[in-house]
Amino acid sequence: MLKLYNTFTKSLETLESTGSDVKIYLCGPTVQSSPHIGHGRSAVVFDFMVRYIKFSGKSVIFARNITDIDDKIIEKSIEENITYQELGERVTKEFKDSYDALNCLTPDFEPKATETINQMIELIDDLIEKNYGYITKSGVYFDVSKYDSYLELSGRSFDEVLRGTRVNVEEDKKNPEDFALWKISKDDEPSWESPWGNGRPGWHIECSAMIHDIFKGEIDIHCGGNDLIFPHHENERAQSTSAFNHEFVKHWVHNGMINFSGKKMSKSEGNSKFLQEYINNYGGNVLRYFFLRANYRKPQEFSEALLEESKATFNNIESLISGVKADLKDSNLESIFIESMNDDLNTPKFLGEMFEYINKNKNGDQTQITNMKSTIKFLFEILGFVFKDNKKTIDTKLLEDILTEQNIEIENDINVSINKFVKKRNNHRKNKEFEIADYMRDRLEEVGIMIEDGNESGWRWKNS
Ligand SMILES: [Zn+2]
């Protein structure tokens, strides 16, 4: 059974879904500027989670929102002299392209804030009616003094919150820590009609409204980066539990941030790294592998050197399993995978034990090795990696002709046949029959297989 660390209870808890489906909501991007590495990490680690839950036999309903209206989007669009819609559409496409390049599953629901305004207005209305919300000249606010368990999720103190709160001049709140549900817009700002005046929603209310709309107000996993715990998730929890009268989330799951030379990567630090650049240079698989190497909850150090390392290791894995069919054939390796993943998605543990296992078994018999390779390929596909199978891109008919020419049987695992071929050629070399050995090498090169006399296996695929 999968155990996940719950930020709220600060303990590992077994995932038990309320209904037949595991309902997952992930806070998605605010589409104000191009995605950076941190956005990639959040998308990929929760993609591992969704894929693993599906692999364990459960069905999943997965929603991830798009915040396409907020103060920063308005500011940025003014800076660029375009409308907030133009900016939002451009950046949304950049996010979508990055998610696709990283092979992240497309959510079942991908609501936009601007398409959920009516649901937000209804929810705010409900909060006002229940006395949690109050109306002022500048908007509608949530009165945190009415909500007893405020700050229980983040574990912050009111003092800390007050020190971090910047009160805008136009805000006329009862308590400085109250937060906006609805903001009255200035004349030149985008706005929607509401019972309290033309304006736009506060940031937190959209996720509460969407979860209510899609999941009838109750979900199994609420996830996002740990920079969202406060204020976003704290405020979401205050709104939702006040409106629906019960805890609306079973598991709060948060991923760690990306560090750059020990410093948190953030816009304010000015050290954000754009995702697209690295996708272009390294490809989705290598980035995915980079994220797989770290525990999703911990901070992860990012550098070009670490990406290079990931690239080299991933290439080794890819060439190890090239030509084999993905299949769960090795139950030991399958157990290693399940035990690691059940332990709060411990992907570095899985990798460490997998490499140990490969080392221990690399001199085993051929069937055992093939089963191990098939299983690695299967598990990596479960984790969302895509292999351009070399077997499919080579001229199979030609390879079979070349093997038949040497009286070598065509095996299910083509690697086995090629190994036999190389062994036969080595015997010719030992007997100093260099002419035939060279001929065999040239023939194999015709299908993109390079014979390397110093190499352990004796051969490699040309393009791997
Ligand atoms: Zn959210």
Bound molecules: zinc ion
- Rg from C-alpha positions? 27 Å
- As a percent range, the share of strand residues is 5-15%
Spatial ordering of strands, largest sheet: 4-3-9-10
CATH superfamily of the largest domain: HUPs
Describe the protein's architecture and organization.
The structure is a single chain. The protein has 464 residues and is an alpha/beta fold. The chain has 3 domains: 3-264, HUPs (Rossmann fold, 3-Layer(aba) Sandwich); 321-387; 390-461, no CATH class. The chain has 17 helices and 15 strands. The protein has helices spanning 37-55, 71-80, 84-101, 117-129, 158-164, 203-215, 229-244, 275-282, 284-292, 304-320, 331-342, 347-361, 366-382, 390-393, 396-405, 414-430, 434-445; strands at 3-6, 11-14, 21-26, 59-64, 133-135, 139-142, 179-184, 199-201, 219-225, 249-255, 258-260, 263-264, 300-301, 449-451, 459-461. The strands form 5 sheets. The protein has a 4-stranded parallel beta sheet, sandwiched between helices. Strands 5-6-7-8 form a 4-stranded antiparallel beta sheet. Strand 14 (449-451) and strand 15 (459-461) form a beta hairpin. Helix 11 runs antiparallel to helix 12. The mean pLDDT is 92. The protein binds zinc ion (ZN). The site of zinc ion has 4 residues, from helix 7.
Give a short summary of the structure.
The chain has 17 helices and 15 strands.
